[in-house]
Fold:
Amino acid sequence: MSETEFATVMFTGLCAISLIGLIVMVRAVQIDSLRDFLFGLRDEMFLYAFDEELIESPAYRNLRVMMNSLIRYAHRASFAHMILLMIAKRSFHIETAEPPLLKEWSRAVDELPSPQAEKFREFHARVQHALFRHMVFQSPVVWCLVIAVLIYALLVKWPQMTMKAALTAILKPRMHIDIVEADAVASAAC
Amino acid sequence: MDEERRARLLSEGIQALVTILRVAIVAGSFVLCIYFMSSAAGAFAGKETGVSFDFVARIGIDRWLAYMFGAGGAGYGVYERKLRQRNISRMRGQTHEFEKRADKKRTSSALTPDGKTRREDR
Structure:
């Protein structure tokens, strides 16, 4: 083996090790970023509930508990976890009901006057969107799927659509964010 | 065992599996790199290793890995900075809101909402 070949192999090995380290660090920052977003949203919701005197309402309380559960279990929110959970539930015929906390939240929101109910639904939608974005950007498997599906969608199916709209239209109905949400709430309740 | 408990156990099991797989992939890749490097060191010292290193030099993978690491590292830095700015903005926003309600005459540092220096102050 020549000196050049040796140096090349060593350099390749060091670069590969550094890349592995970088990937691990990026994943940690992605989790931090999701948590940071949820903290921000929780603060915003607190100020809204405070102003509207809804601090004691289950519409605020339960959504806050759900956000706290997601902040705590943000490291579990991954595409792999969601897919495996869906497959396992189907394979073992496990039918889980929606957690009582989320049911109570839906009921409490329905009982609120329309503008307040809309605001709480919007907070919930923002949580789901953040989770969706996190799960898409975190998984290299999803990146590959996204690239393939986007090329197909933008060129063949909806050439008039923007990339962001196509991505949301294709992935969002297929990503079972509610499963991840319910899992975090149930884990936190244990 | 009731359905809820089974679902919980399943979820915990899946989480354990995902974690094991993740650690195995990272640790496996690391061990593979070390193995290749030590084999190269052995071959350089004149030992017969049975590992071929021709392809590394042939496809120039070292250069591409270095580009990826450089670009990835820069991206990581930018991402971290954005996260820090968002964090400053969030912390500042909340405190600002509370203080404004308690003290109408409160003064401000006058930084931008994400903690950057104002253009006119540069």
